[in-house]
Design brief:
Elements lengths: L1 H27 L4 E3 L36 H6 L4 H5 L9 E3 L12 E4 L5 H18 L2 E2 L3 H10 L19 E2 L1 H12 L19 E3 L6 H4 L3 H7 L4 H17 L8 E7 L2 H11 L6 H12 L5 E7 L2 H7 L5 E3 L5 H9 L3 E3 L4 H8 L5 E5 L14 E5 L2
Parallel strand pairs: 3-4, 3-6, 5-6, 7-8, 7-10, 8-9, 10-11, 11-12
Antiparallel strand pairs: 1-2
Helix pairs in contact: 4-14, 9-13, 13-14
Length: 389
């Protein structure tokens, strides 16, 4: 009699576990995956808003297929920009991050590596882009030794392997990031679903070198919390940044606990000509900054604008308001950490300012149109465009 009772208890426990799994899968988060905040369409902007689910309120359902990417109709509802999608500036948006397969050290499989040229902002966004390929599609990736030497010294928790040794042979085939992303998307979008248990074929047939300088900001912004945990500044850099911010606030006789810190990155020098020649846009005008300052003055309590720049003299000569203070130094790594310490952010063009704001929290104000690397792929309260002229 006792064994029969034990068997019934065991069966009941299994059935209950499966039932609970289905509820969690549908409503409260995924087992073995990280659910991403979806794109948010047509919401009035306010500082307190956070992304909400497109599909509405959770409800009790049986286990069902959940596709890996948002559908065209969902993206349209979120205000997705089809013209930018055609230009490969806005790529398909993943719905969740599957648990990466245990294949990173399988030397028989092709892998993806990436261009490591450029300065600090480029290297960070190159690393982020390669991580997107790994997180979304589960393919092997590796970074160059030089990129690792630069970034790990600043962010000791970074985990992507270095492309050295027999497991990472030299790559001869190169593609742009957008082209590779779309190839991998085509292999997975119609087949991969959340509740599938079968193994799908490895989506990469040959190793690829990503040759450009990608920064898929509209995908990255939904993964911001994931990457902030990985991109943790080393303590020495963080201490110096906090000292710079504290000194700036002291100059305004403002206590940190009483202020809303809005960090500002002003990129000038090389980018004044670069924006004209490469992006066919006008450089950011003074009125952009005033509009951005007023945006936060009208929405936050006691904002203090903490400025860093590659042209500090211009900033000191042009920003005269009492709630604006220059806090930049001579070390770009520390300046990056200063930007990341903000409650909200104002940036101009370039990957350095975006990287600092991305590693921070709150709203990022950027210049439009074409505020590289941010494009208006869909409406979200986390990204707010303001005219550059």
């Amino acid at each position: 009699m006792w064994p029969k009772t034990m068997l019934m208890v065991l069966v009941l426990a299994v059935v209950t576990s499966v039932f609970i799994y289905c509820i969690k899968l549908t409503n409260y988060g995924f087992s073995g995956v990280d659910k991403l905040p979806p794109p948010v369409g047509n919401l009035p902007l306010s500082v307190s808003q956070t992304p909400r689910a497109v599909s509405g309120s959770p409800r009790l359902e049986s286990c069902r297929q959940v596709k890996a990417f948002y559908s065209d109709s969902e993206m349209k509802e979120a205000g997705f920009n089809p013209s930018l999608a055609k230009a490969s500036l806005c790529l398909p948006q993943p719905r969740y991050l599957p648990l990466p397969p245990d294949n990173q050290h399988d030397c028989s499989l092709p892998y993806v590596t990436i261009n490591s040229a450029g300065r600090l902002g480029n290297k960070i966004t190159e690393y982020l882009s390669l991580s997107v390929i790994r997180k979304v599609f589960g393919v092997r990736v590796a970074i160059a030794q030089g990129m690792s030497d630069t970034l790990v010294a600043i962010f000791p928790k970074l985990s992507l392997p270095v492309a050295t040794g027999e497991c990472y042979p030299r790559v001869t085939h190169s593609e742009s990031f957008a082209k590779l992303y779309m190839k991998l998307f085509a292999k997975s979008a119609d087949s991969r679903a959340l509740d599938d248990t079968q193994l799908y074929p490895y989506p990469l047939q040959q190793s690829v070198y990503v040759k450009d300088f990608p920064c898929p900001s509209h995908i990255l912004i939904t993964m911001r919390d994931h990457f902030r945990q990985e991109f943790t500044f080393n303590q020495r850099v963080l201490r110096k940044a906090k000292v710079q911010v504290a000194a700036a606030l002291q100059a305004l006789n403002t206590a940190l606990r009483d202020a809303t810190i809005v960090t500002v990155h002003v990129r000038r020098t090389d980018y004044l000509a670069h924006v004209k020649n490469y992006y066919k846009q006008s450089p950011v005008k003074d009125v952009y900054y005033q509009r951005a300052f007023n945006f936060f003055r009208n929405r936050t309590h006691n904002p203090v604008f903490v400025v860093t720049s590659d042209d500090p003299e211009w900033c000191k000569n042009n920003f005269k308001d009492k709630d604006i203070v220059y806090a930049g130094g001579r070390n770009p790594v520390v300046d990056l950490a200063v930007l990341a310490l903000g409650d909200h952010h104002i940036i101009t063009d370039g990957t350095f300012g975006f990287s600092g704001a991305f590693l921070g929290k709150g709203i990022i104000v950027y210049p439009e149109p074409t505020g590289w690397p941010i494009y208006p792929c869909f409406k979200t309260p986390l990204l707010h465009p303001i005219s550059r002229t």
